[in-house]
Amino acid sequence: MRFTDICPYDSLTPLEKMPYVALVEVTKNLDGLSFDFLSITSTTMKRRLSELDNKPIKEIRRLELKKTTIRKCFRTVPACYIYAQCGWKTLESTHQLTPRPIDFDNISFNDILRSVVVNAVCVNHTFIPCGKTFQWRDEVINIDRKTLCVTSKTLRKRIGDLNTKGPLREIRRLEISRTVARFNATRTQPVCRIFIHYPKRAVKLYITDHVIIEMHIKRGQPKRRSLLCGFKNSPKQEPKVPYTIHTIPASIVVFDDLLRKVTDNSVCINHSFYQSGKQIMPVVDAIANIPRRIRGIFRRRQIREDYFTRLPDTCLLEIFKHLTRKDLDYLKGVNKKIHSVSNDKSLDKIKWEQGGLYICQRKRLQLRSSNSKRCKEEKIYIVPLPFEPKFLTRLHSILRGHNVKSLTCWSMKCDMNMDPIRQEERSSSFTQLIKGIPIVEMKAVGNIIPSLITEQFLATVCASGMIAFISELFPVDYYQHKFQVSESFLPYLLKFHSLKAPGMILHTNWIVNLIMDYLNEEEEFGKREEIFNKMSDPCRVDFVGWEFAVDRPITSQLIKQQIRAAEFQYTLLPTLNDEKHSIVNIRNNMRAIISPFAWEVEDGAATFHVVEIEFCHELESS
Amino acid sequence: MVLITLVSSDEQNFPVERELLKQSGTIETLIVNMNLDDEDTDAAAMPIPLPNVKGDVLEKVIQWMEHHKGDPVKEGDNEDNNAEIVVPQWDDDFFKPAMYGSKHLELTVAASYLDIKNLLTLSCKAISNTFKGKTGPQIREEWGVPNEFTPEEEEAIRKENEWSE
């Protein structure tokens, strides 16, 4: 008899055809499936698996393998169940099938199980066949443990335990195992399992060796009627492995050679292999859904003994030197020891790439870097991006993967109607982004950056190690966002090797003293110069000095009044259009060249005085 | 032909041609220090103990050295582009049978200990080839390495690598 005889496929509606999962004892094949590696003794099982090899099926939803033990006079439960999802037309069986509708009233469920089913209050109860572990999310009501016809005291206790908490909404799965003591002190297979599922409409089949049970669920039937169950055609008529749900979150995969072939096969999804003396492990994606205590019983089978991680670190490093960065990244996730060794500095030349890295926008809220390697001590270019907090945060997370010494941003875009809250958010994100980067250049960034540059901003980034901050913008942008700094900011200013922030206004009276202080710090200057020199050409900043605004013009007379003539030498440097001033530290020949200039703003109604101070050694300047 | 006897950790004796041993930096140093090259010295009477190498591994090492007799010996640190090294067919066949077992790894350790640079390079390259294009779980499965990471740690590593994918 064929399945199609039992339930003609053509008679089903499209909806009915869709969600079916048929439990097929002997199903079709899987490509490459071989039973040679399966540690079973059952010839039936072998035959079934060989049949799987003959014909493909579209998709296996569930595969259960159970170890069969050959006994003297009878076999244990079937060794293999395969739940396949496929069209009904493709289902065939060589077995003699005797369809029989289920009559719930005559099912010899014991009362306790019926109670569980009828109440439909359980969710996801699983009694593991070993009889020692089970779990429930909540509990079942109305279970009378006295009526449970199991011999196991442990099981009785468990069922009783289900009564101690409140009701559940539905039963998704309930497996109850009975352990029967036998003369040889081993345990039998589970006595019964109940899997309750509530599909919208379903026709399901269950096949055992000799019996097929058919159950029709019609539209409008109570949910409980969708319970599908089957019988082993045994004298006691005990329920036996009725049915399973389509998919369960905690799918389990056995890792032996055979099953790995199965799982490697692209047609398989959601395999669930029952514990059967083999060691089993959860599917990685599903492990999070398995309760912790259940997780413990699934152990991955060790196919090979781990010799690899016993290698000395030097040998591991030798091996890793032959890998690419991507391979190293994968390797990091193998084991803690390997993770540690793969972080060795000797592998840096594989992991890090010299040269610049360009980051640009790929899609909305996605960024893309120009190459797959991390750049170390090199320059990062950020090409036009929306100046939005989300982007800045994302950018920040990308830059954390690099050892950034220099950052250049240009043409960042921003809507002009910024509300104060968004502005504050942007400012915070931007500060976070550039904190700790020694050199930052901002080019053609419109009116965004000037509005962010404040005394607090500069003090923060300076304290985080920045030594150069250069923003090249139009004077009007700076003028619109000018700000006066307090005297407490001057120590920060002295730490800047290069600073262009013309919107920052200093008192003119501070300038000469500030320059003299800077010129006295030859050692600090040397250290910062060294940082600059260590960088490759693209990272260097040509300008060493400061550019900011002053509240009134700086004059030759003012300088002469304030300079300490015993230590510093002042010279006026006449030029074609303007005049410059030179201050030289007599002791160390450090020199500052002061170039004041004025910008006419507000259509010529006001003047913005800016001063550029360049530092160098006198020999260099001459 | 001068023969020098190597003694493994399990006290097996392996008489080896002097010429072959030039491939091993460690043994070469010992030979020089023990003056085994002197005409007056009876090299056969002075076996070189190798307490860190078992007999079966040493046998493999000698087999490899015999095949590579006359090959130029690398000196100093390997500055080659490791990615471009190709394992010759003979060596591939030599390593493959024991690739995932302890023997190959012991051979690698022995190559490191005996300072046989060519053997170490090829052996490591052969091992590293098994990692190419494989994910962490696949490597774990292949080499039988236990997973010590918690799901949270695995997620953190995945995120760490995410940016370049």
From TrEMBL, chain A:
SUPFAM superfamilies: F-box domain. Gene3D superfamilies: 1.20.1280.50. It comes from the Eukaryota. This is F-box domain-containing protein. The gene is WBGene00106207.
From TrEMBL, chain B:
Pfam families: Skp1, Skp1_POZ. One of its GO terms (biological process) is protein ubiquitination. Residues 145-165 are annotated as: Disordered. One of its GO terms (cellular component) is cytoplasm. Residues 156-165 have a biased composition (Basic and acidic residues). It comes from the Eukaryota. One of its GO terms (molecular function) is cullin family protein binding. CDD domains: BTB_POZ_SKP1. This is Skp1-related protein. PANTHER family: SKP1 (PTHR11165). Pathway: Protein modification; protein ubiquitination. Keywords: Ubl conjugation pathway. Belongs to the SKP1 family. Probable essential component of SCF (SKP1-CUL1-F-box protein) E3 ubiquitin-protein ligase complexes, which mediate the ubiquitination and subsequent proteasomal degradation of target proteins. Regulates cell proliferation during embryonic and larval development.
